[in-house]
Queue: 2 jobs
Job 1
Amino acid sequence: MCGIVGLFLKDKALEPQLGALLTDMLITMTDRGPDSAGIAIYNASDAAHARLTVQSETPDADFADLAEKAQAIVGGPVTLSRRDTHAVLTVPAGTAEALRHALRDVAPTVRVMSFGDSLEIYKEVGLPRDVAARFDIASMSGTHGIGHTRMATESAVTTLGAHPFNTGPDQCLVHNGSLSNHNVLRRKLQREGIHIETQNDTEVGAAYLTWKMQNGATLGEALEASLDDLDGFFNFVVGTKDGFGVVRDPIACKPAVMAETDQYVAFGSEYRALVNLPGIETARVWEPEPATVYFWTHGATETPSKKAA
Amino acid sequence: MQTYDLEAEGLRGLNSALQAQTAETNQTSWEIVNPRGSHAVAVGLDAPIEVTVKGSTGYYTAGMNKQATIHVEGSAGPGVAENMMSGIVVIDGDASQYAGATGHGGTLVIKGNASSRCGISMKGIDIVVHGNVGHMSAFMAQSGNLVVCGDAGDALGDSIYEARLFVRGSVKSLGADCIEKEMRPEHIEILRDLLEKGGCDAKPEEFKRYGSARQLYNFKIDNAY
């Protein structure tokens, strides 16, 4: 099963409540997957800084001198803000990707969950309620975010098997379904030099999108291509710096409901996840079409629904 | 009228109260408030009662219905009226995938759109959709009628047996062994009755009929045991 929620705010007045709204939506989806949970949240960024979210099994030891280690690599000021097993490193703009690679050598027990200007990813094993509480997701503000609760089918229940997955700078992916050609695709992507850590099918889906985009595809084109190259069942929700996208496989047996008002665009695996959103009674509620890529962005155009397909 | 607050009193209490009704009951009219997308609302009923759900529901609404009239004043999640035997189910909004799946009898009316696999493996149910239906609708349909006032998605009636499919708008593609068939006077009469039951403002003459070409494996006598 697995449960997905997503919330993209059009009304800035709701931004302080983003974490609380997403947490409530995700807890409602607990029945769809009790194994692990995660949230990707996007909040205000400035041109001078970028950030990495990192995770450790031994955070006390690892995080003590991590800012200093990072500072030595990027050659500029680094601040570390810890939340339970995760921490956000704020670094000078343009240094996040280099630091991400360097951390593998200087801090091998630290895993990079996400990197970019505005994205933070928090995920752990456990129920959505407990995971959200550990990171105090409810207190976070932001412009948009995605949540996922996992019922593991293709690989072990671990932090790294939890969603969302980081696919590139400020990009993330969550998945409901199961991919059946992930082993052959993993071998292919590894031959192409793509770093894949686990036996998880969704990580391969994420790596596939990364690989496509490294070779010149836009996210929309990469998602289009995934419809041809990925075998299995999938609803993908992807987060980008200024919005989110949705794509369902052509069979579309995994559930998806969307709601839109003047204040937000919301995604839920089920309508239940959306019932506490403000103004849901009068929202436009619909199911996204199969094999169609949808995007909503805060971009220059004010059109609320922009189909990339 | 009996009013039941689903949020306050819970799903098990609702379904056991509704399932306890008999043909002789005096509690013939029920109203369910605060459904909030709940699953399995008003399932397994077997009495000529009227149930109105004030809002949208989740999976398997009105499943296995017999005799009852169930009206959802909102949209319904996957599998609404699955395996219905008799009675009437009306959805004011949209229905998610596999609406009316495996239904043996009764009438399912969807006033909005139905998504994929509407009427999959239908076995005698009548389904009337005011809007569109998604892909693979009436897959392996065995008996009954599917009426679509709007358009049908890909692979309509794939591997169909004997059900009748009536579509007013376009059909994106027909499934294996499903063909357009002649609309004879008796079909016009059946459809007129169905449109009236479904409260559709459409003329039967505007529809096309689709059904089985009877060319697949199970139709060949040489394949019989």
Note: Chain B is about 10% helix and 25% strand.
Job 2
Amino acid sequence: MEMSRLPVSASQRAKLISAGYTSLSSLSSVSPFDLARDLKISDNEAHEILKVASHSSRLGSSDGSHAIVHGAQTAWDMLHEEELLARITTSCADLDNILGGGINCKEVTEIGGVPGIGKTQLGIQLAVNVQIPVNYGGLGGKAIYIDTEGSFMVERALQVAKACLEDILEYNGSVRKKFQVCEVKMQPEDFLENMFYFRICSYSEQIAVINYLEKFISENKDVKAVIIDSVTFHFRQDFEDMALRTRLLSGMALKLMKLAKKFSLAVVILNQVTTKYSEGSFHLNLALGDSWSHACTNRVILYWNGNERYAYIDKSPSLRSASAPVFCDRERDPEFSFKLVNESK
Amino acid sequence: MKPENLLQQPLSTQKCTVGCPLLDSFLGGGIPCNSVTELVSESGCGKTQLCLQLLLSAQLPVSLGGLAASSLFIHSEFPFPSRRLQQLSHSFRSSHPNLFGSNDPCDRIFVHAVHSADQLLDILHRIDPLLADTQNQLPIKLIVIDSIAALFRSEFDNTPSDLKRRSSLFFKISGKLKSQAKRFGLAVVVTNQVVDLVVSPDGMNGLKVGNLSCLYSSGRRVCPALGISWANCVNSRLFLSRNEEIVGEETGLVDVGSGDLICKSTVEIPLEANKGAQKGAPKQRPGATQRLKQSTKEKHGAA
């Protein structure tokens, strides 16, 4: 859009053009302060001009040329924003390390692995850890736990909550001088209260819940993590039409990404593995097929390495592929807060 | 659609005692309700025995660790061990004389035979009204399927289409069982067989299911039958194994690998179940006592 069509006074327009601002898009990235300096006008006046410019660019966006897309952000701003976002710790130092500090908000993270490797444990742990108060390096948020398999057990969640609370108190003890004011008044039961638990018994229920989440989260804005354990189970039965399954799944993935972005929360999807037959041999693969692998921002695979559990970053736009041992024994790793309940003989 | 308040339900899941205090304490009280528990072992380790015992102990009042409920036994292995059940019910009755009076505990056990996986699925769909029946003095709270492996190990070929049909049936059956378990608060127990593991130890990393370093039974390395798809279908897995070592007293050894974590526990339990069950242990040498090694892997870590 040409500067001549901008509804500002003639003198302002002349100043703009003579200072080199000949098109609307040239105003899109300038700050009011810079504009005021360039045009030798007051900050307020510059601010007004920019407001008018952004307004008319939105109106003119239909003609397509040089439009400033509403809601667009510069990569610089995004970087700043990302640095401000806290991450949800996995309570395992090595895993946090390869994840760059923990599970990122605004992203969809998929965690897959064989049965019994600890997916549900990790899910419960994250649902608890997201509630660690801000003063202790957490997010102080709430969690939504969508259980499709029935593996979530209240007593286990309570144990994890207790262990997490102990860690908070320990931390509190070590930095007491710094944070004398904030005493922990949380109870393990509070962690459970801040976990919204949905038990899902069919794929249609699963889709319904995910459609409902947007409304639910806009009423409960402090939700900072959505955990789906597992996305797979109901989609591995009853599907004759695989194309339909792919459509449903990608629709669901889109909704989850939108949620993550809009409410800046972490979406964690747990997935099962399956054996894939190709070229005469069987391989282990995450379930739901190739098209699903596009659905998540990050992909972490848990696997056995001898008798130890390892995690491997399979896909991530920002992290390098790496693997690290997880759920390591407490003796070996004092920072490990996955409290083991029944370790002794 | 509303989230459940986790604090409104009791803070621990209801459990059904298996009738053995030590095993109970490792399972955190017994077999949990609202989920599917799998019992895996080679033949002759006492799966059916444990199942029959469960059918009886489910009738105990909640104060004694039972579910105060009837139970449904679906069997695919023949014949139904009715004589053994009679014996057990007799001793069960004499150990709880005031509970049953003139009632026979066997009256509260429903038994159904199945011959194929499709038939099992069909039955599961038809028992909804039976489970929902609240008029019944003792509603059904326990379903035992003995065994799931027998249904799947014969009928299906090793072709891609059959394998696909098989795993789709796994998920249908388990989906139905889980939704019933949730809806009616049932404890569901399925039994499974084992297969010998023929892969070299270092080549099986990816395929290793469960958190025990290796499962041995009768000195052979084994793993649960039905593969990885079925392993996705159960919530907890309990591994029983036998170990033909001769020890001084009659004890069983239970290995509990608990909670998807790396905790392993071993406990020696006197196997009461073994008393009078000598014919169930054909390999036993005369005069020698038998040591049973039972390993459990529980996915929840509630233990």
Note: The CA atoms of residues 143 and 324 of chain A lie 26 Å apart.
